[in-house]
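Quick question, first post here. What does this chain look like in 3D?
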Amino acid sequence: MKKALSIFILLFFLLASHSSANTISDDKIKQTEMIITANESIGKKPGNHILLDQDGNRFSLSEYIGKPLIINFVYTNCSHVCHISTAILAGIRDDMIRELGQKVNILTVSFDYEMDTPQRMKEYGENFTKNFRYWRFAAGDKKAIEGLTEEFGFSYQKTKEGFDHINMISVMDSKGKIYKNVFYGTGDNDRADKELIESLKGAMSNSASADDILNFTLLMDKLKLICTDYDPVSGTYKLNYYYLISYILLTILCFIVPIIFMWWKEISYLFIRFTSLAFKIFRIS
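> Answer (accepted):
Ran it through. Tokens below.
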């Protein structure tokens, strides 16, 4: 049954992607591809890249083995979305203690290895916390940052204004593996807060395997690609009824019609029996 369902889903997305290639915007495809790339990192264990915290101390992610960890990537010259992710984390620290019964480590890493130094990260971090014991702000060299962002599936590209990048916060489990990626946008804080808390609960209890999460998130990302429009301003997806109705009709055409054709005799027999019964009931009444 699972195999048949997987084949059905695969065929559906292949046909849907092909039929809508000219209607889905490049930005929409790019955004969704970034999300899919990010979620391919789920279940993987990043390497021990050496970073420098806000005080210039060297460390690696291996120090967090045995503890749940939240990671977000920023650059200090970012004027908007980077601050959103860090503000989200600052806002839910008390919620994490109340919901989880313990403090959770947070790591904010700059991906601008050319400009951001430990001192700049400290100045940036002081806008959100005065205690760096459970929340580190880190910088790194080119090799470390490129390796780390690639392993997390964090996509970014340098522009004249700064960087274009995915809006993402990652949750790691106590085994040092990436458990979940939470995506956010402007005005999306409440949803991101709840999703982070639930992801941390799952990471601490191992309530779902990384494979289960990966399969589900990839499926949802593909559904977002073909049935929604991505709003880059708000960072949210809005249902496009034209796409939705088109794919429902496509599903009927590609799958339901062939099923009717294959089972035509059985369906015809049932239809005749039904109409005969309905006719008798009508005559009696």
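The mean pLDDT is 78.
The domain at 40-207 is CATH 3.40.30.10 (Glutaredoxin).
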